[in-house]
């Protein structure tokens, strides 16, 4: 196949690039419209403590249901929102909406929940980010201690100094910082020594094949051991099976999140889920029969 006609390859690829650019352009113009038309909404996925079985937090995840284009997954539109700068108004909408929502959960009989929100690297470069977050917390009345911001390691590759500064300011306010998809970025571990972090999220790609894959077993064990020694907490992402859950609990992982317990859901549905969890025996809520700790 190395002997294929180079010219045809060129035409093939240039056509692909053209098509990609068209799709991008269409997403971009539709996204601007979508913000005005309120086509975005948030879903929330519970996070569970592996010792108590209690729901201790939720992660907010954005969804786009476009009139023109149908359902578009965040892995497709977030990168374009980042490249076009639309992530700033969209990110602000996400922060405000999720915080507003989280305040209403504090009025249920469920114990306080932390709210985790994903921050894109671009947002961290936004000059007024700290002020914006302070303003949103003040407007909504959400205590900063209940807010957790998730960022990926990639932020420590290019903007390590400024990111460290901003994260420090956010932590000073009482906000918690989590590293999303821990271990999958290309950054060195050195940031763990001087960046203010509360929690790391063990990436789904390491969780997927435990306990069968010995490499993943070694990696997850080492991540938990190392980050515990550094005084950090862990939450495992993408937990889908009881075997994964048992392994994580046995190895001292603090929290977990994944389809085994619950999929991301609309605010209203989560509200029902929470009030049930607060009143009923939690074990009966858990698909697949979560064992008593
Ligand atoms: P993430 O922050 O690492 O989110 C975890 C993703 O894993 C979510 O996908 C979630 O629905 C999915 N997930 C959770 N449990 C399971 C499971 O047990 N099995 C499997 N297979 N998947 C599970 P989603 O919602 O499609 O989001 C994908 C990515 O898009 C997120 O990864 C995050 O990087 C980005 N994203 C989503 N919402 C936002 C947002 O509000 N702001 C920003 N900046 N990025 C967002
Ligand atoms: Mg996340
Ligand atoms: Mg993740
Ligand atoms: Mg593997």
TrEMBL record:
Molecular function terms from GO: cyclic-guanylate-specific phosphodiesterase activity
Domain of life: Bacteria
Key words, A-Z: Membrane, Signal, Transmembrane, Transmembrane helix
Record GO biological process: cellular response to nitric oxide
Domain EAL: 24-278
Protein name: EAL domain-containing protein
Species of origin: Syntrophotalea acetylenivorans
Organism lineage string: Bacteria, Pseudomonadati, Thermodesulfobacteriota, Desulfuromonadia, Desulfuromonadales
Range covered out of full length: 767 to 1059 of 1059
